[in-house]
Amino acid sequence: MVFACSGGSNVGQIANDAAVRLNDQGTAKLYCLVGAVSHIPGMVKGAESAEYIIAIDGCPVGCAKKALEHLKLKIDEYIVVTEKGIKKTYDLHPRKADIDKILKKHYWRKEWKKSLCLRLKKRNGRKCRES
């Protein structure tokens, strides 16, 4: 499950767009961060049922991370867009190249899946394909 910042800056929009892409490619299910942190019962229950949580924040303020910590949910993968060399501006129309930078195939397709498989195996013996 992926939760993302969608703040009022380019990096907030990049975080959200990256999460949408992960959802669209079947890598992770995008879930409503605001609904869960607002304590909407069904959304909290859904978030608590996640086997693996990815949080993507736009900047070091870390709103998505703080929201998930407030819910006492364990974050398995954490990405901060500005830590990938993208400068924060208030242009709400992110460049495709910046979104691509966050979703480099070598990281999300190999390292992330390998990490996910190892964690799921440890947690509940679940088998999965790492490639």
How many domains make up the 3D coordinates?
1
Instruction: Give the structural class.
Output: mainly alpha
Strand order of the largest sheet: 1-2-3
Per DSSP, the total helix count is 6
Net shape: globular
- Summarize the amount of helix as a percent range: 40-55%
Strand content: 5-15%
Radius of gyration: 14 Å
Detailed description of the structure:
The protein has 131 residues and is mainly alpha-helical. It has one domain. 48% of the residues lie in helices and 8% in strands. The protein is built from 6 helices and 3 strands. A 3-stranded parallel β-sheet has the order 1-2-3, with helices on both faces. α1 crosses α5.
Q: What are the SSEs and their pairings?
A:
Blueprint: E1 2-4, H1 10-24, H2 33-37, H3 41-48, E2 54-57, H4 63-70, E3 77-80, H5 96-102, H6 105-124
Parallel strand pairs: 1-2, 2-3
